[in-house]
Structures are given as C-alpha cells and as structure tokens.
Write a structure and sequence with these properties.
heterodimer, A: about 425 residues, nine-stranded mixed β-sheet, 19 strands, B: about 250 residues, alpha/beta, 10 helices
C-alpha cells in the first residue's frame, strides 16, 4: 500500500539523499529504510494531527553537502548568539559540521568532548534509535556531526557549555545534527543549545540524547531562533537514573514550523525532571511541543510548565503525556500549559494526557488559553502606565513564570532580555 | 478641581442606567464622602472617573482642573493626577511590586514632561513611604498583590497613592475587609496625604471609616443620584437610621 502513496518532494529528496556518518552502519541503514517506508507523518496520525509535516514541508531540502558559505555571515551568526558570554566552552557547528576554528574549549572543565564525526571515538559515544519516530529516523539516516560529551563521575564543572548550531547553507538544504550527553554518577553540568539560522529556508533536524547516571544533574537550556522561513525538527531523549535531576528549558522564538519532542524516561527511582518552555511566536509561525514523560519506576517527580505567547496568525501547540507504569508508585507528576493570545487570529491548542497504571500516585494537569486580562490592563493603566507598556509588562510576566525555572541567573537574564526585545518588535531570526 | 454635571451612565451592553444625573463639585483640599447602599452606583462612579471600559456616558460632563476628563485615556488621567484605590486590588502574577511602582511613577513623570527618577532615588522614596505605612520591603519584592492579605492589599494601595502623589484620590470601599487596627493604619496613611492642593472622594458603605478619615462633605448616593448632602453629622445619622429611607425617596 505504502509504495502506492506518492512521495512528496521533501520525502524524495531525503530518501535519495546521501547518507550521514558512516560509522552508524546498520543503525543508519535501518533508519533510512524506516523513513523510506513511513515517509513524513501527516495529520491522520494522532500525535501529528496539528503538525502535518507531509503538507507543511512543501519543497525539497536535500541533506546538506559541501556548501559554500560566507565566512563573514557565519562569524556574524556565531557572534550573535545571545548566550555566548555565559559559556566557558563553545562548540560551534556550521551547517551541521563541527568548526574547531570557531570553537572555544575550556580544557580545565574535565568534560570529555568528542565531535560525533571524529575518528577513533571512545566506546561511550553511541547512539540509540527511537522507535516509530520519523524525526529520529531522518536524523540517523543523515546526521553529519554533533557533540558527544561525557561528564565523569563526581565532576561538577562550573563553566557552562554551549553547543551553537549555525545554519546558513545558502540554498534549500537539511542540516542534521545529533548530540550525546553522558552524565556519570554524581556529576552535574549546565548545557546550552543554541540554534541560529539565516534567511535561506532550510530544515534543521537535531536530536539530543541524554543519559543521567545516579544522582547526576543536568540543566539544559535550548534557545531556538532559526530563521522564520525554516523548519526546526528536534528530539530530546533523556534517561534518568536513580535520584537524577534533569532541568530542561526550551525557548522557541524562531522557525516557520517547529516540532520539538521530548521523551523522558524515569529508569531509576526517586529521580526528578522539571521541563519548562516558552514560545514567543508571531506572523504565521507554528510551534508544536510533544512531551512523553514515562515513569517506569517508583518515586519519580515530574513537573512540566509551558507558557506560550502567540501574536498575529501564529499557532502554538502543547501535547504532554505522562505515563505512570504499574510499578511506579509514589509518582508525583504535574503538568501545565498556558497560551496567551495577542491577536484574534492567533491560536493555542493543548492536549494533556495522563496514562496511569499505578494506584498510589499524585498526578495532575492543567491547560489554559486566553487573552490579556482586562482587569490587569486597567489596573496598570490606572497607575499611569500606557497601554503598550502595560501589555509588554503583562506578556513579559506571563513568559517570566516559565523562565523562572532556569536556575542559572545569567542565562535567565539573557532570556528575559530576549523576551523584552521580542515584545519591543525584534522578532524572527537574529541578524 | 472636579465638576460632575448631570452625569448619566449605563453599562455598555445593558439598557439600565446606573448613574442617573449625578452632580458633584469637589474643591482642592476637600474630602468628600459618598455613602450609599449596595447597588447605588458608588463603584460605577469611581470607574467612570478613572476611565474603565464597559461603561457608557449617556449625558453630562466631568471636568477636572478645567479639562474634559471623559475625553482622556486611562493612563492620561493617572498622569494628570487621578488615582483610584481599588475596592478589590488585582493580583498580577509575575510583575514585581517594586518594578510596577517604578514603571508607573516614571511613566507618569514622562507624560508630564518631568525628569524620571533614578533607581537609588526611587528606592529611597519607596523605603521612606513604605516605612510610614508599616510595609516591609520584603513584601514589595513579591508580585503585585499576589498572596497579600486583605489588609496588605489595602495598605499597598495607599502606598501607591503616597508614591504617585495624585491630586484627586478616589477611595473605593477602602475599609472593606479591614479589622480596626488595619483600618487605623490605612486611615493614618490617607490623612497624611491630606493637603490644600489635593482632593479626596471616599466611597464607603459604612460610617466607621469616616471616624478616622473625617470628611468635609458627605453625600448620599441612592439609585444613581445624590439624594442628600450634608456635613459629617449626616454620616452619623445614617449609621443610626440606615439607608431604607433613601431607597424609598429615590424610588
């Protein structure tokens, strides 16, 4: 049957496009075969009903080859990364390839850093595929590079590491990257992922795999400002060991279409995950976050908080699923998502799902969507604050409640500033 | 300072008039109390003066310092010195009280063409004014009114008034929800702001507040009209006889 379904230009370009890293071997060929069979997901699949990639990705974006890039343009993008001054180590990836010359590595951090494309990789650098996921299949089929990081047991480097992905392929292309983060027992790290793009439409496909050992802690902050003509497809796959602590914050300002997915699995008891995010969308931007938090063992705690601002004709979507398996007693899971609509043509859709098979758990979810509260506006204006300023103050406060989740103060300040600049009209990609 | 003439107001989506010909003249330095039963239009009057959406002026005029108040935007009225102490101050999550006060004060100064306050000067002003009202600086770090007790909310309203230094203060049921100690603190704060170039309109259901904020003039508002005006003894009289007589009179 599937063979009879006509492939779209995007699908054909990917199926026929060259393979990525050769060392992936069978994993890669299997993923390519999976994608050739499944193609892009469409709205008939429940998880994709709001983000029909088959329809949305309306052109061919072949895997990026050896493109000619304008060094000045790349330098400008790298320099424009809002979080660059916070990072002690910056690993720069240009069009999906590690750029050692532009990177800055603080060797004293004790973190082992290996580009995924390096020859002679240590044994811990390995990838795991995600079942039935076309983003992951595409990623494994075409991945060209990425960062593999290992924080040794007990190491708690203070310096922040930034993985900065700059895409300026100069032509319609797909840039595919994959990161592997291994946090050994008792280690901790703050990791920033920055995704920046220029004005040529492209597809960014990026996957980050995280393995948190016993008692390890990782704070990940992902800032996405791909160009507003581009597609951003991103997966996060995190496995939490006993007592591990995972803090994730995703800030979505860019791309025409964003689909980001998080698969977080509680593999060890008494682990903690706090997953927060914010969208600031305008024009016809579309952003869809799907989270699956899987409590497989007892005593886990998960918190999800998303605050999404949509202006113009933008559309925000949040789909959060919390699974509590039969053995996962004493699980504490709470999820909330809130949309703030700044225009009558903006839209927010939320789909919270709880699948609970254990009987001694505390779980809940809440979702709201609305406009700016008239009473709030009147109160601020009655104190002399002009309408525009009052609006900005309220929107910043709305998003600020999610940004609060970021523990690093410097990062929090930069994100707050980015939100203020967005409200002041600086939207879309960084130029 | 304030001249209200034959003011008729209705709720935007309804036909029923709430204010049915209010006349009121308030001079600088005066404190006027407006008393009346629930539903007499007291709060509507406060909202019309401050420009809240949802009300429609059918007839009449409001002149403030010689200008047409009704033609001004909400924030413009505030910058010109009109202040409403809310009956139910709104909680605004995510906006720190301190930040809110600074933005408001400087927005007003900017609108009036005055130099804005620097952060140290502003901090000094807030510290001084909040001490007088027994407000801990810690409270001002919290989001606007979030988690404040009823008394804290009312004190915070008076603090805003003390910092913004308006010329026309409208206090809407400032006594509601306050115990006697809190009431005294709030009243002291209000009395400290009495001055020859500032007028106040104190809206209240009960006479109790007027023991502490002693008015120059007392009006009785009933069914959208001022039905009686007198001095402070009128408030005491109302305390004894209640509003029943006025309900009949206005009907």
């Amino acid at each position: 049957m599937d063979a009879l379904v006509q492939k779209t230009a995007a699908e054909t370009a990917w199926i026929e496009g060259g393979a990525g890293l050769s060392w992936l071997g069978a994993v890669q060929s299997k993923a390519a075969a999976n994608f050739a069979r499944s193609g892009l997901p469409n709205r008939r699949l429940e998880d994709w009903k709001w983000t029909d990639l088959k329809r949305l990705i309306d052109g061919a974006y072949p895997p990026v080859g050896a493109v000619k890039t304008d060094a000045g343009e790349i330098d400008a993008l790298v320099a424009a990364s809002p979080l660059k001054d916070i990072a002690a180590t910056r690993l720069i990836f240009v069009n999906g390839r590690f750029d050692a010359g532009r990177s800055l590595i603080d060797a004293s951090s004790g973190v082992e850093i290996v580009p995924l494309s390096a020859t002679g990789r240590p044994e811990w650098v390995k990838v795991t595929s995600t079942d039935d996921d076309p983003i992951d299949d595409l990623n494994l089929a075409h991945v060209s590079d990425g960062a593999a990081l290992r924080v040794p047991a007990g190491a708690r480097p203070e310096g922040v590491i930034e993985l900065c992905f700059v895409s300026a392929p100069g032509e319609a292309a797909t840039v595919t990257t994959r990161n592997v983060v291994v946090m050994e027992e008792g280690s901790s790290l703050t990791l920033i992922e920055t995704h920046l793009g220029n004005a040529v439409a492209h597809v960014a496909n990026t996957v980050t795999e995280i393995d948190l050992g016993k008692g390890a802690r990782l704070d990940r902050i992902k800032l996405q400002r791909d160009d507003a003509t581009s597609f951003h497809l991103a997966n996060l796959v995190a496995t939490l060991g006993e007592g591990a602590d995972f803090r994730d914050f995703t800030f979505t300002l860019g791309a025409r279409v964003t689909r980001q997915q998080g698969f977080v699995r509680f593999a060890g008891e008494n682990a903690n995950a706090r997953i927060a995010g914010a969208y600031l969308l305008g024009g016809r931007q579309h952003a869809d976050t799907r989270l699956v938090v899987d409590h497989a063992v007892p005593g886990g705690a998960s918190r999800e908080l998303f605050k999404c601002v949509m202006d113009d004709e933008a559309r925000g979507i949040f789909q959060g699923k919390v699974v509590v398996r039969r053995d996962a007693q004493k699980t504490d899971g709470k999820q909330s998502s809130h949309g703030l609509l700044l225009s009558p043509t903006a839209e927010f859709d939320a789909k919270p799902e709880l699948e609970i098979f254990a009987d001694d758990v505390v779980c809940g979810h809440g979702a709201t969507s609305g406009e700016i509260d008239d009473d709030h506006m009147f109160y601020l204006r009655s104190r002399g604050i002009p309408e525009g300023e009052a609006r900005s103050l309220l929107v910043a406060a709305f998003v600020g409640e999610a940004i609060e989740a970021v523990e690093n103060e410097g990062v929090r300040e930069v994100l707050t500033e980015l939100a203020a600049r967005w409200l002041a009209g600086e939207r879309g990609a960084i130029t | 300072m304030l001249e209200i003439k034959n003011l008729h107001v209705k709720v935007a989506d309804e036909d029923r008039e709430i204010l049915r010909g209010v006349d009121l003249s308030v001079k600088a330095g005066e404190v006027h109390a407006i008393m009346g039963p629930n539903g007499s239009g007291k709060s509507t009057l406060s909202y019309v003066l401050t420009g809240r959406d949802g009300y429609e002026v059918i007839e009449g005029s409001v002149t403030y310092k010689g200008e047409d108040l009704l033609a001004m935007d909400v924030d413009e009225r505030a910058a010109k010195g009109v202040f409403l102490a809310f009956q139910y101050p709104v909680e605004i999550p995510g906006v720190a009280t301190m930040q809110f006060l600074k933005v408001a004060l400087n927005a007003q100064k900017k609108a009036r063409g005055e130099p804005e306050l620097t952060t140290p000067d502003f901090m000094r002003l807030v510290r001084e004014r909040s001490q007088k009202l027994g407000i801990a600086t810690e409270m001002l770090k919290r989001p606007v009114n979030v988690g404040f007790s009823g008394g804290e909310k009312k004190r915070a309203e008076i603090l805003q008034m003390a910092i913004l230094e308006p010329t026309l203060c409208v206090l809407d049921e400032t006594d509601s929800g306050l115990d006697i100690d809190a009431l005294k603190v709030v009243a002291d704060g209000v009395n400290a702001l009495r001055s020859p170039d500032r007028a106040m309109i104190v809206i209240t259901h009960y006479q109790r507040l007027l023991d502490y904020i002693v008015p120059d003039v007392v009006h009785v508002l009933s069914k959208g009209r001022i039905v009686r005006t007198g001095d402070k003894s009128l408030a005491l009289e109302l305390e004894k006889s209640g509003y029943a007589a006025y309900a009949d009179e206005a009907a």
